[in-house]
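Regression report. Comparing outputs from two consecutive submissions.

Submission 1:
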Amino acid sequence: MNPTKPNKIRFIILIVILIITVVFGTLIITDKNHVLLAKITRTPQQKNTTKIIVNDKDQKKEFTSEKESLQEALKDNNISIFQHDIVTPKLDTNIKKYSLLIVDIQRKYAVTIIDKKNKQEIVTDKNIIKDILKEQKIKLIKEDTIIPNLNDKIEHNGKIIISRANSVNIIVDGQERNIKTHLKKVDKIIAQAGIKLDKDDYSIPDKNSKIKNNASIEIIRVTKKTETTKDEIAFETETEYSDQMYEDEQKVTQEGANGILEKIYEIKLENNKEISRKLVSEKNTLEPQNKIIVYGTKKHPIGKIITGGRATYYYGPTIAACNLFPAGTRLKVTNTSTGQSIEVTVDDTGGFGWPTVIDLRYDYFEKIGGTVSAGVINVTIEEIL
């Protein structure tokens, strides 16, 4: 064997390695997550493209990209990255430095688990429903239902909804029963319990409602009956007038008497308790007798009349103070501006003189159109005999 032949072979190998190193500048890099990056210095004649190999869970994808960042390259190739996913190298890596880039995507799924009233939000690398439940130590029994199915895959930001078998109390005919059921609708639960509803019977909640665990269903039994009542009809008061009596006189010529009204009601009961009544008929069994009051219309004779004077007002216990007529005299006082009149009885004297002829308590003063702000009004005084 020629001893120089191995030397030649070694020499050729060294030359080849040297050429590759100089021309292509191959550099092997391993990052902290042990992802292999191949960086190759490009010559000006080479295209500015990077070959990217993506390990995405159980899938492997290869493509080339002329984008600048890894994030742009992944998006350009319809590879979505979600909030909790871990991408190595980082998304802002400048891929133009590499001719070959190996990318590892560790998928993390944000999952909402709704189990009865409990809502749990988790992040997991599992994407099969049964694996997620096992990881979270969530157990199911035969009557429970789950959406999606146990063997389905979860999507990003997906939901797992667990419907547990319910414990339901049914209140019916004065008794309370408890049943276990996976049914949700009230009417189906009632049927499962063997309870029959009559035409007008109903349930609370409504038969189309869906209920939760430890809920109660009350059956309302509806019945009807009739009832007869006798109510008084109030008499009315009739008014008559007589010119044989003075204006301030009146008398009752017929006393009133109530009548009787018979009513028939239809009564609706729920669980033997009245909840409404409807009047179906009524009739008078005794007519009422009206009360008759006669009022006099005859004017009292008028005595002395005072014109051209004025009235003032005051605050006090008495009604009318006058120096022209003695106490006890009935007077008709008329506001000459408005024509409004009032009858008063003199019960005091005043410390005033003409043209003031009468001093009225303020409320009587206002009854004939006087105002406190004005203070005085022009009046005519007529003595009522």
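Submission 2:
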Amino acid sequence: MNKEIYQGGGDYLSSVFNKIDRAAEILKLEPWIVKELKTFSRVLEMRVRVGKEHFTAFRVRHVNPYPTGHRPYKGGIRFDELTGGDLQTIKALAAEMTLKCAVVGPDAVRRLPFGGAKGGIGINPKNYSREQIRDIVETFVDEIGHDIGPTVDVPAPDYGTNDEIMRMIATRYAKFNAMPGAGAVVTGKPLSKGGGGCPGRRQATGLGMLYVYEALKELKVLPSDIFVVDKPRVVIHGFGNVGLNFGKYAERFGLKVVAVCEANGCLYNSNGIDMAALVKYVEDYKSVYGFPGAELKDFYEILALPHEIDAPCAKENTIDKKWAEITTAKLMIEGANGPVTAEAEEVITRRNIMVVPDLLANAGGVTVSYFEWQQDIEGGQFSEEDVFKKLEQYMRVGAKGVSETAAKFQVDLRMGAYLWSIEYLAEALKAKHGW
């Protein structure tokens, strides 16, 4: 995230609420439904103390259209000193998670059975040892107590957290909650060493983006001018778990990654970057910096070079007005949540750049989290082949629903995603509350 443009999560939350209002107006929803979608069912603020330090931590639940105690809230937990302790950002992410879970599913009638939640701690995990992180995690779990659980609220990895931190949460929780299915308290756990994870969870968000791309391509929704070359050229921004896996599988979907950017540097190769070699390099050196198969360039210089697709896979507010004005891309696929600033969105709209929105594009992560939760609750296990097959099915359902809804109401894909989601949520909320 660009610290110069970050003004706190209030703008992000306002943007989400404004889109809910617009969708509600189009759908002619009753005022109580709109109020429900803009109200948070629970906001927990904690002080996590370790030694002489203490950190602000939050866990926010948005709306659950299902019977709680049967189908829980769901959402990531992030460790980030800028946004992890920012309540407005956490609220915005929780609200988007509710909407996201209502975008994808096995068919148009059924969607992911979760309400939206999000959590965060205002720390930079790189500044602490593994032992200190464990202390922070265990203190957080002790503080949050019974407010998380397999049928209550189920965290997952987000920015700054990973599968090992999920293992720590699950281990601490199980110590005081010894019961069948206790491991379902979190998803995104490791596969190795008895971690209890689900095959395909690490790949899910990046691969899910590509399933959506392929579905929209087959539906002839994507702009035709991205296919002026045999292999559309992609710039990936952010090479953590999401960007790495998007890049790793991109060639299978007929794409060519010409640039990869992260905080430590931007790589460029007009002939395409050898993604298998780059993935191996990042595994060894923890950064793209110094990779011999591409040259270093300035980020904005790369954006001005010919390419067809931008894939922002970092954090919120990374696509600023300058990016939107310079990029030669005709399509953006949002691997990150809320990556576009309000100013940039205006430029993107004016320039007719198509955006595949976060609610749809990056829903693969929570989709496979659902499979992992289901696996833990039932005591079963999925194969990677089964997970990828089901993931593709769920993402295709979302892509078709969003694109058809956008066409029906003559709106862009972002508003199409809001309408597709909120129309479903409205009916579920009416049924839940007896209206």
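Expected: both submissions complete independently.
Actual: both completed, but the second showed a warning that disappeared on reload.
Relevant detail on submission 2: Confidence is low (pLDDT under 50) at residues 1-7.
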